[in-house]
Design brief:
It contains 3 helices and 3 strands. With 79 residues, it is an alpha+beta fold. Strand 2 (26-30) and strand 3 form a beta hairpin.
Length: 79
C-alpha cells in the first residue's frame, strides 16, 4: 500500500481518488507518520420493501366478532 504526504496527496488528489475507486487503497501521512487510510466506499442499495408479499398467506381474525358469544354471556351473567 502506497503512502503519500499531505502536500503530495493534495496535489494529486483526483488521480489518487480514481485509483482508490479501482481498489488501490493508500495512506496519507503527516511528517512521515501514517494518519489516514483511504479505501473505496462501497454503497449498497437498501432493500426495497415489497408491500403485499404475504397476501393470501396470512389470515387475520375478525376482531369485531371474535369471542362475541362469550362476552355476551359474561355480561348477562350466564358464565
Amino acid at each position: 500500500m502506497q503512502q503519500y504526504n499531505i502536500h503530495e496527496a493534495k496535489t494529486h488528489l483526483s488521480s489518487l481518488i480514481d485509483n482508490a475507486i479501482k481498489g488501490n487503497s493508500f495512506i496519507i501521512a503527516k511528517a512521515g507518520k501514517p494518519v489516514v487510510k483511504v479505501v473505496p466506499y462501497s454503497f449498497k442499495e437498501p432493500k426495497k420493501q415489497r408491500i403485499g408479499f404475504l397476501k393470501s398467506k396470512i389470515s387475520v381474525a375478525d376482531f369485531d366478532s371474535m369471542g362475541k358469544d362469550e362476552i355476551e354471556k359474561l355480561f348477562e351473567g350466564i358464565l
